[in-house]
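Minutes, structural biology subgroup

Action item carried over from last meeting: produce the structure token record for Malate dehydrogenase (Bathycoccus prasinos). EB confirmed the sequence was re-checked against the source entry. Recorded below for completeness.
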Amino acid sequence: MVTGVGVDLSHISTISEVKGFCGNDQIEEALTGCDLVIIPAGIPRKPGMTRDDLFKINAGIVRDLVQSVAKYCPNAILNIISNPVNSTVPIAAEVMKKNDCYDPKKILGVTTLDVMRAKTFVAALRPEDIKDVTMCDVPVVGGHAGTTIIPLLSQVTPKLSKPFEGEELTALVTRIQNAGTEVVDAKAGAGSATLSMALAAENMATSCLRAMSGEKGIVECAYVASEVIPELAFFASKCELGENGVEKVLGCGEMDSYEKVQVSNAVAELKSSIDKGVEFANA
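Output recorded by EB:
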């Protein structure tokens, strides 16, 4: 099936060459020479499941795939989508460390979908200020699960004529944090976010490729090795991308008191998820 999809896509008239590979016996051929590797593999969420419920299965998948990356393309930039991202990124880092090819700039947890959702929901509530959602920016920091997803609504651009406050603020933040569950429930057991996630993955991959080709000033939110929060080895925030991955972690900027409380409240859960990933990789 995978090989067939590759053949199907290869008939599209673009400058890109498309090939399909399937199975461990083709992993070397698939990865050798790669500069960017995107890992979306794993089982999707179903109603009632949290991203953490996926850990036991997806953690092993990510570990094994990153082991192959370390063997066949150790200098590649990694875009990790497989949930729970808060744990799978630390797993990837530990695997690369064990293979003596760890570069913290080259492992990025893809949180782009959180940013896309935040932009979409904000634009719907403030159409008088945001007439083109593609021109809107809403930084999202923290992690990629539940309350660790922290939209910085005080930093929305273009600047809003009426800031989000009170119940409206709480409802909007809650919707952004639970948007993945909204999709899972709507699909009623048929899967999780795939179409929106595919576009988010493409956006992130394209940004990485543009930066790798030498284009300057490309900024994306991503879950990366960071010193933004001293207690946490990984944290999502704005990052400037470059030829070798994350050129500079830009941090959270000026947060309001509400956002600072959210970040503080997320630290314990993020640390637990990071530790869980590290322990799994080293077990």
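Discussion: The chain has nine helices and eight strands.
Next step: EB to file the record with the rest of the batch.
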